[in-house]
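Okay, can you check this protein?
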Amino acid sequence: MKSMLCQFKKVQTKPLPHILKVMNISEKKLFELFEMWINQGNITPVHPVFKELKKRRDAEIKRKRQEKQELELLKYKELRQRKYSNKQIAKEMHYPYDKLNSFLKKWYNTLRRQGLSNEAIAKELNASKNELTPIILAYEERQRMHEEMRRRRIAENKRYAKTHLKRIREDLKGPSEYFIFDTEAVQCPDELIEIAVIDCKGTTVYNSLVKPSHKINWRISSLTGITNQMVMDKPSIHQVMRDLHDLIAGKTLMSWGIDYDSVLLRKSIDSTGIDLNCKFCCAQKIHMGLVEDINQIALQRAADCDMQNHRALDDCKLVLDVLRKDIEMIDNKSAGFKQRTPAESNGGNTIFIPRSEPLAATP
């Protein structure tokens, strides 16, 4: 197995089909090897190839599960039409009799999410009113609790947005305390390859590529346009952190979805020993508070643009555009604004559009 690991490491930066061809194994076998390597500590769980394998595997499992459920429903409806009793149905479907109610509950929830009424569901499942009544009551109670949780999260996001937007407004009139930042990074291990900082007036405070200690693989290059040649003569993370300390130490840093960017910056602080002593603020949560949405919203959707470049300075400017629209929204008292519904939310998914040509880096 060590030879397989060595073989994989030689081709790990290549596309997945190429890796499978060189190693002469199936996706399933490579996934099993990854699980073993992760348990042994040879590979991290966030390795891009493993994440891609897991995504494909999960999609296949979901497809097979859906097919199985649809076949179960067809068989259930057929047995109902034959006037089988519940005990006979449970026996034919190899279900414990006491679990047949779970089957009805599962399909009731599925059909309700598809927009069917209780009458239509009863007809679809060929179930009596007595069978569905406890299921309907339980479903409505869950919906009530979900709506209550949603209201609480919206209220929390509103308070968060109100607090920070008030301070951002003050930034527009005087000295900057809030700065927007964004990062690009390699994975396994996570290392910065680019960082940009702008103030709330749109002035670029800092923008530089960073020379990592590990190579940039083709996945990151295709996503960001940043290549190994572009970072070859760029400053190290130690020099970058020293520069940032002189510029933004003690300030409040904002980014879109603060978790990833702040973790990267904290890792850089730990590795260099240069503490910026900054507070962090999430521009995404501010926007969510204004549009009254509890689901994460992709930056390109919030900015209403067709594509996202995935370069640090470009993303900073997109975040600033969204913040300006948010402030304008408040000033106009939400004139012409339509509240986002849960069905309209994209759940935080971002469409990645690889570059055909890399952008020129700004040192």
